[in-house]
Amino acid sequence: MTTTEASRARSLRAHERRVRIWSLSGTLALALGVAASSLGEVLTEGAWWFPYIGVVIVVLAVAAVAHTLIARAWIGSLVGAAAGLATLTLFFAPATAIVGIIPTIDTFDRFGALIAQGQSSMESQRFPADADTGIVFLICLGAVGLSVAMDAIAFVLRRPALTALPLLIMLAVPAFVRSELHDAFGFAVTALAYAGILLVAEERTTVRAAWPVVASALVLALIVPVLLPSVEPGESSSGATGLISTGVNPILNLSDDLRRDSALLALTYFSDEGDEYLRVAALDEFSDETWSPSERELDDANTVDEFAPAQGLSDEVPRTESVMQIQIQRLRGKLLPVPYAATSITDVGRGWVWEPEGLTVASSFANSKDANYEVSYITPAPTIEQLEAAPTELPAGFEKYLALPESLPAVVAETAQQVAGAEATRFDQALALQKFFRNGDFTYSEEAPVAEDYDGSGAEVLGEFLSAQSGYCVHFASAMAAMARSLDIPARVVVGFTPGQRQVNSETDEVRYAVTTDNLHSWPELYFPTVGWVRFEPTTSVGSTPRFAQSVNDDPSTPDVDESKPEPTATPTSSATPGARPDVPRDEIPDNSTPGETQISPWWLLLLAIPFLLAIPALVRAVRRGLRLRAVGRGNVALAWREICDSAADLGVAVSRNATPRQQYEQLAAQLGLVASRAGSSSSSSSASSSSSSSAASSALAAVLAAVEASAFSPHPQPVRREAVTSVLASLRSSAGWKERIAATLAPRTAFDR
After folding, report:
1. What confidence tens digit (pLDDT) does each residue in 3-25 have?
2. Which of 240, 340, 353, 670 lies 20 to 30 angstroms, CA to CA, from 223?
3. Are 588 and 503 in contact (CB under 8 A)?
4. What spatial distance separates the first Cα and last Cα of the chain, rounded to whole Å?
5. What angle do CA 631, 636, 639 make, to 5 degrees?
6. Neighbours of 1 (CB within 10 A)
7. What does DSSP say about strands 319-328 and 265-271: parallel, antiparallel, or unpaired?
8. What is the 3-state secondary structure (H, E, C) of 47-61?
9. In percent, how much of the chain has pLDDT > 70?
């Protein structure tokens, strides 16, 4: 071989290597882009896909450049990872980086904040969720990890069949969120992309292992998700799911939960002292959009074995001590329902701590679902005299409970002054505000705020609520708390449950309370020094107003009433069925099975996906044939002969792989010689036509063989016409029976052959 020929051969090999690298990297990017469609099950819109695919393309493209220039494959994957980090920096933290792409310590601090934001957003939102900045960052961070993993598997480990693992991780994300979420169509399309990976990387794929691997992966990917039992009920028309999620801020989901078509049993409890409100979260920050809890770190030292005393509660305030047994049914999240004011919790498990200001219970890793625990608590019973005599001077730090956003409509403070400004004490003002909402002018409605576009708990909607005088608990609680703050009364909004349905076991006379999604509720708590936080109930026709012990001094102006006999408790007066939805009948309480639950699997999705599964071998074989014929047009004789032999093998012709091209030619010529006899022609003209066709095919086959042998032994390669190859292929098909032709088209034997 001359120097020129050797240089040309090296150049050709280098070109083929570059084409293989870029083709495989492009196919990896395509597969990751298609697999990301599964996230559409849990996110509301698709704008997140563009930064995701941008990260994928940058990582794999930079890695491909490195693979082309550097022989050590692991360096290419490492360079791709660095490019992914630079892209994340450019997208999410350019102001913290050097020239916008080189990360600094501040960049990683920003990344940490975005991770926390994304996790918090996922916990607080109902799925499908809005893809905010934190969630998009988590998606792009995952894109870097998956892209680097795919690249390392394909180029470093040289096991492209194992790229199925990162793809399955991406496809399984919706199932982690909710078990009934699975998209057979998405699985099928991703399977096609995976087959493309194996096709492009065929020289690194074992002959016998490729087809079983892809077939098994496709079967499992399509059938297993569809056959998995749905352990949670299907979605109702309102979009509610089969579990009640508290999230970080449960007020965000409250409206959706209240609008469920069918109530879900959230929890049951046993208590000797009667009906109790259960608190989940205390929201003390008020903004344009909503009420929310203050951001504070959980203190692991605040174990639930013993709580701190209730904030502001003095020893002079009467109280009763009680015990409650709570069993969570379909409530999940990192917040635990407890009565006020809890003093200890037993049998709840590890990870739960109490928050000192609100006495709510939260965890950084535990989950409330299926919890069964016992709460010891006290019920303060302040007298009216104690509430009226409460000082006006507030403890240090309580200014935050008076803060109001600048966007708060002026009508809120003006209405508060008109309703309660002239009252003598802050307690009298609080009672006046409560009475204002419950005097009959306001109505309870979950639909009016949506229809009039003032739904929500933020400052901006309160003006419209006061004008429309119609809303549900969120509006009443938010309005009263904001009006109280405008009167310099510390206030916050609490989210939790009203007492629920009282049920008596006819055999044991045991009393339990069943709490459903219809009991989800929010109410204001107002603070009075020396007494502490006191619940009020402004929502009309819902729940119960608190009852306070009377003054110990008998009023001589009312001789028929003896005020010197105080009522013994401050527990709420309530009907047998105090709920958060007055429009819902209380004669039925759902059990754990939950009305509307369904176990039907979407078989039709599997039936729709079967054609895609069956078409994969044919598609792979058709693409390979087209690529080979294009290469033949550029003078690649070896691929011409390979395509002829593979097509014959697909048709069931026994062509020895170990034979020489001349021996293979004789086997193929024998097959082509059967055309006339198989045709079974009864006329001489037909026989002549068949003989002419066979002769033309034999000539074309001989021409291809001559070119193959010349390229192997002659210093002057002989080109072959593409028409000669297609003529041979057509003759091979006509020489086979109809069953063989169908099998060769739908299930080609060489689809995943090396």
Report:
1. 666 666 677 777 777 878 888 88
2. 240
3. no
4. 28
5. 80
6. 9
7. antiparallel
8. CCHHHHHHHHHHHHH
9. 73
